[in-house]
């Protein structure tokens, strides 16, 4: 199969969108997710019956659709979302992985977890309250995590008589704030999650609104792999490839006596047979001799396909090495400056010895400094905090025992991210994003999302 044929097959396949929801407590986030699942016919009959039974016991006439996502007992008792709830559903146009994240300040780390792999974030606000402090926090986190698309869902429009001026004022305030943070795209939609207006079906009550419903936007928003993804068929350009080696395949059988393949998932861009590549951190170069995909040979592969690369030269490559195009190799470094979200209950302190996991490579490291902690309320930097505790977001300087090929997070979310791990028990301490904290919208790097 030629590269052009592969691209044609990909364009006709059902696409996948990962998205997250966020919002303040009682903004109706879980109700929106429940309504989305219910009205798109993505709820099994026994699930709906269970929700209806619980709702009746509580004296509610209509089923409480928030119960479809608030799965923990504590969540149901308190009426709030505590943990990240993942839901999988599909329509005729697209498949979805949804992360319903908590709204409480003390669960900031949960939102970071849910939104870190999302291509779109839906931020809810209550039409009666407008943009509040927590709304600005969620917009800041979306900008920090480089989420390409943000939807502001102005909920509970039924409680403000579906007034267009109320929606317009909230939309204008949020869009100005998010754009100032570097969020590349903001879409605003007036909804009522309780009644279903503009969630899946257009609302007759808001005929002044001519935009898409929430589901329609989710089905049609463009999705693009990191660093350009699959090449355009008319150019043949290979893009900015990143291939972390996960496993070296050496069968040594009579059928394949000399086979040496390097298996893994393409983290960004694409690779083509005949392309000159560099292996990092060693810096050795070779050419792609072959690509095996699902038991067959292809001449082109792209994000996020899992493949086996074969190289022309027999060079030393092991798990954790990264194969990249020779003309687009990131610099290797042992000094990592990054923004991290601390997720562990124990604090992160200067001088602490950790493990740093980047793609398939894990190396020993030490925290050399914590220059500042980010105050999400006003986006100010609190200098020299000395430590980071659970839910803190701050700048760190880490020295690694071995060189790493890190992209900036603004350039590639996959190869610009890492984890800090406690070497004693394997606990994840922090999630890191290499490079500057927020996107600089005036630079080419800031626009490369």
Write the layout of secondary structure elements.
Elements lengths: L2 H10 L2 E9 L5 H11 L5 H13 L15 H6 L6 E6 L3 E7 L7 H8 L4 E7 L6 H12 L4 E7 L8 H18 L4 E5 L23 H7 L22 E2 L2 E3 L11 E5 L4 E3 L3 E5 L3 E10 L2 E3 L1 E3 L3 E6 L10 E4 L6 E11 L5 E2 L3 E6 L2 E15 L4 E4 L3 E2 L4 E13 L11 E5 L6 E7 L9 H4 L2
Parallel strand pairs: 1-3, 1-4, 4-5, 5-6
Antiparallel strand pairs: 2-3, 7-16, 8-9, 9-15, 10-14, 11-12, 11-16, 12-13, 12-15, 17-23, 17-25, 18-22, 19-20, 19-24, 20-21, 20-23, 24-25
Q: Would you kindly provide a written description of the structure presented here, covering whatever features stand out?
A:
By secondary structure, the chain is of the alpha+beta class. The protein is built from nine helices and 25 strands. The protein has helices at 3-12, 29-39, 45-57, 73-78, 108-115, 133-144, 164-181, 214-220, 444-447; strands at 15-23, 85-90, 94-100, 120-126, 149-155, 186-190, 243-244, 247-249, 261-265, 270-272, 276-280, 284-293, 296-298, 300-302, 306-311, 322-325, 332-342, 348-349, 353-358, 361-375, 380-383, 387-388, 393-405, 417-421, 428-434. The strands form five sheets. Strands 7, 8, 9, 11, 12, 13, 15 and 16 form an eight-stranded antiparallel beta sheet that branches. A six-stranded mixed beta sheet has the order 2-3-1-4-5-6, sandwiched between helices. Helix 6 crosses helix 7. The protein is globular, with a radius of gyration of 24 Å. The relative contact order is 0.11. The model is unreliable at 1-13, 71-82, 225-238 and 440-449 (pLDDT under 50).
């Amino acid at each position: 199969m030629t590269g052009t044929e592969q691209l044609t097959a990909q364009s006709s396949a059902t696409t996948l969108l990962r998205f997250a929801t966020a919002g303040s407590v009682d903004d109706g986030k879980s109700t929106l997710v429940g309504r989305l699942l219910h009205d798109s016919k993505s709820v099994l009959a026994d699930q709906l019956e269970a929700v209806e039974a619980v709702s009746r016991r509580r004296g509610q006439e209509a089923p409480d659709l928030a119960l479809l996502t608030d799965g923990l007992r504590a969540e149901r008792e308190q009426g709030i979302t505590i943990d990240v709830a993942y839901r999988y559903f599909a329509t005729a146009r697209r498949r979805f992985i949804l992360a319903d994240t908590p709204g409480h300040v003390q669960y900031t780390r949960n939102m970071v977890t849910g939104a870190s792999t999302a291509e779109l974030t839906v931020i809810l606000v209550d039409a009666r309250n407008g943009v509040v402090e927590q709304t600005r926090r969620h917009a800041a986190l979306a900008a920090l995590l480089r989420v390409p698309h943000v939807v502001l869902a102005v909920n509970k429009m039924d409680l403000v008589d579906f007034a267009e001026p109320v929606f317009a004022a909230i939309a204008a305030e949020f869009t100005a704030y998010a754009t100032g943070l570097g969020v590349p795209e903001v879409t605003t939609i007036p909804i009522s999650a309780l009644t279903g207006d503009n969630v899946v079906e257009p609302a007759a009550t808001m005929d002044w609104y001519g935009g898409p419903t929430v589901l329609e936007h989710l089905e049609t928003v463009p999705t693009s792999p990191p660093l350009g993804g699959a090449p355009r068929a008319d150019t043949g350009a290979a893009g900015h490839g990143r291939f972390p080696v996960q496993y070296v395949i050496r069968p040594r059988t009579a059928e394949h006596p000399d086979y040496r393949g390097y298996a893994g998932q393409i983290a960004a861009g694409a690779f083509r047979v005949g392309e000159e590549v560099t292996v990092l951190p060693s810096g050795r170069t070779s050419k792609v001799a072959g690509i095996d995909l699902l038991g067959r040979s292809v001449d082109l592969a792209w994000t996020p396909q899992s493949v086996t690369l074969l190289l022309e030269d027999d060079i030393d490559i092991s798990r954790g090495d990264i194969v990249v195009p020779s003309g687009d190799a990131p610099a290797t470094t042992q000094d990592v400056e990054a923004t991290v979200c601390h997720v562990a209950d124990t604090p992160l302190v200067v001088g602490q010895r950790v493990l740093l996991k980047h793609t398939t490579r894990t190396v020993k490291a030490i925290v050399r400094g914590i220059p500042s902690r980010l105050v999400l309320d006003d986006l100010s930097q609190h200098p020299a905090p000395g430590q980071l505790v659970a839910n803190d977001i701050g700048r760190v300087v880490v020295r690694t025992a071995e060189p790493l090929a890190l992209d900036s997070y603004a350039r590639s979310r996959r190869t610009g991210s890492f984890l800090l791990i406690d070497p004693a028990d394997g606990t994840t301490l922090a999630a890191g994003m290499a490079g500057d904290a927020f996107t600089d919208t005036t630079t080419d790097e800031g626009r490369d999302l």
